[in-house]
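On to our target:
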Amino acid sequence: MPAWSGILERYSAVRRLTERLCEPLEVEDHVAQPMDDVSPPRWHLGHVTWFFETFVLTPHVPDYAPYHPHYSFLFNSYYNLVGERTDRPRRGTLTRPTVREVLQYRTEIDRRVQELVSDCDDAMLAKLGPVLEIGVNHEQQHQELLLADIKNILFQAPLYPGYLPGAELTVGQSAPASGYSGFEGGLTGFGHAGDGFAYDNEGPRHEQKLPPFRLANGLVTNAEFLEFINDGGYARPELWLSDGWDIVQRLGWQAPLYWLRRDSTWISHTLYGLREVDGGEPVVHVSYYEADAFARWAGRRLPTEFEWEHASVMTDAMSRKSTLLEDRRLHPTMGGHGGDGPRRMIGEVWEWTGSAYLPYPGFRAPKGAIGEYNGKFMVNQMVLRGGSVATPGDSIRPTYRNFWHPDKRWQFAGVRLAEDA
């Protein structure tokens, strides 16, 4: 059986899920763009479709005619080698194509992809398979972005509507994780080992010496972060990196994103609507600057991405996954597996590390436009690990390197502390 024989079924399942994620939205929700980082859901729906049209259909269908002559300009994100594109901050200013027309675009491109893959021989499938796999994983990334963007869009309205209003947030129960686990370190291998899909930035696999360290067994909770707030954490410049302190002053940060003060009570905007901040839940929607300031206040530090990866492998974190997208619980809790050592390393919240997003030794970006996917962003950003409640479970692995600029807060990002042994 060809190696890529099941790719069409996977393609179809991922495409259906993206559309299901948009079903609770009104048409108006599809077109809003409250800040530059957020893309309208309509744009996400079109962009991931453009990806398949551009990288699967166009190179492999003889004399391929684009679905629409202007869609490449509208839905290209950052692929300079493909052509011109709409400026990112303007994605929400365009009223056309309509949501209905974008959904029609998706339907037609799906038909063309299915026709191409169904009719190709094993040799052609060997060429198409890797590109389809990248496209499927790319769309799964946008599923998480969709939920983060939807949450930010709905937060702009004074009504603070929920994405799933009236739905009950089920909370899994497990014993709280406390304390730290020690790891000996030593000469250790890092990066993807070559089994299954991985992005180019996860390799090449290499070795480096890791000093002994200790990693917190639990994620930082809302209650712990409230202690930081109440101790003047946002008003003490000695805790902050210079760039972070400038942003705190300029934007008036006083708490994590989506927290609102109501008299003496903190409430938060969630995808289920407004609810009181639960002290036992992991803190979420904090920037790298906030995570680093909290760590300094706590007398600890953030783990490096290599410490995080080593600990996740040593504790078999993948077998103890916590909440991910398929669990349909779109808010981080302390549910999940117990056991010894660090818990909830896979799922709940992305965990900021103290590592800058840089290439591994020997990294070479692939040639062509696909090579623009990761490599050109390896500057001025920090690495996050582990996945979140919005991450598809079959797309996460210990070597997965997420990355964001240090001031970003709208993603599902939280904190785990570390210390030198």
